[in-house]
Write a structure and sequence with these properties.
42% helix; 10 helices
């Protein structure tokens, strides 16, 4: 069982699913779980595989190493949108992107380039140019290495689509922690993107997000934690972990009026399609 400062284990899912976006390296104080324990707990409730996302150079290197050490884990490598302005200001963005290029091609266990994209919530107008430069570079790397592009989009829906449309999308694109409404969901699906739903879909004030889920085609739905963040209800505000995915999947099933086991099978197959096959 998790420690007393972590939420209790939920009821296991009837069919395995994948947490397609997790940060096992970003613990939150005493609630941090060692990798072995995080994977054990997740597996015990039917979350049998994880995509570990590295968001800066140390995190990207760690993601590649961890994916090489655990069969259940594959990696995504990137510079988070909020890293780009800091690196650009220091004159280090080009060198950092070169290292992401190297890491993206370093192992078949690296399945994704991302999370990349735009974040206009934490970075002001002065950071937009650097964010867009980094985003365009990551799109190019995803295409160069045949990896899935994982997009972070916060308060930047229109510009995210403008950049992707201008650069041309890779074959596989995942909208991480989808945060748009039904209209934006349709715009993303028209472009062939997968939409990944996090614990936010369980929040009481998330009716526009649930409306987006309702118009998402079944073959374009994914699930994630973004752990240790975005913990689903009824544990919002506490530390998230992959073993809490069942709470989000069950909420999705309720919203969709879907059979839980069938939804799990669909999400599992979708994740393989979105990330280049099973692992």
């Amino acid at each position: 069982m998790p420690g007393s400062d972590l939420p209790a284990l939920p009821e296991p899912l009837p069919y395995p699913v994948v947490d397609n976006h997790c940060h096992l390296d970003l613990g939150r104080g005493p609630s941090a779980l060692p990798v072995d324990e995080a994977l054990r707990l997740a597996g015990s409730v039917g979350v049998t595989r994880i995509v570990q996302i590295g968001c800066d150079l140390p995190g990207a290197r760690w993601a590649v190493e961890t994916a090489g050490a655990y069969n259940a884990v594959v990696a995504g490598v990137s510079l988070h949108p909020n890293e780009a302005p800091r690196l650009a200001a220091a004159g280090d963005l080009d060198a950092a992107l070169a290292e992401i290029d190297r890491l993206a091609g370093s192992s078949p266990r690296v399945r994704a380039v991302g999370e990349t994209g735009l974040d206009y919530f934490r970075t002001g107008p002065e950071g937009v140019e650097a964010q867009q430069e980094s985003f365009r570079a990551h799109i190019a790397l995803a295409k160069k290495h045949g990896k899935t592009l994982v997009i972070h989009d916060r308060d930047a829906h229109d510009d995210v689509l403008k950049v992707v449309d201008s650069e041309g999308a890779p074959d596989r694109v995942v909208m991480h922690c989808f945060s748009g409404d039904a209209d934006f969901a349709r715009a993303c699906v028209e472009r062939g993107f997968w939409l990944s739903y996090a614990g936010t879909v369980t929040f009481k004030n998330a009716e526009p997000l649930r409306a987006a889920l309702a118009v998402t085609p079944p073959d374009k739905m994914l699930v994630e934690t973004d752990a240790p963040y975005l913990t689903p209800m009824p544990h919002r505000g506490r530390t998230n972990a992959s073993y809490l995915v069942p709470l989000t999947v069950r909420a999705m099933a309720v919203t969709l009026g879907a059979d839980l086991a069938e939804l799990c099978r669909t999400i599992d197959a979708n994740t393989d399609a979105a990330f280049g096959g099973p692992w």
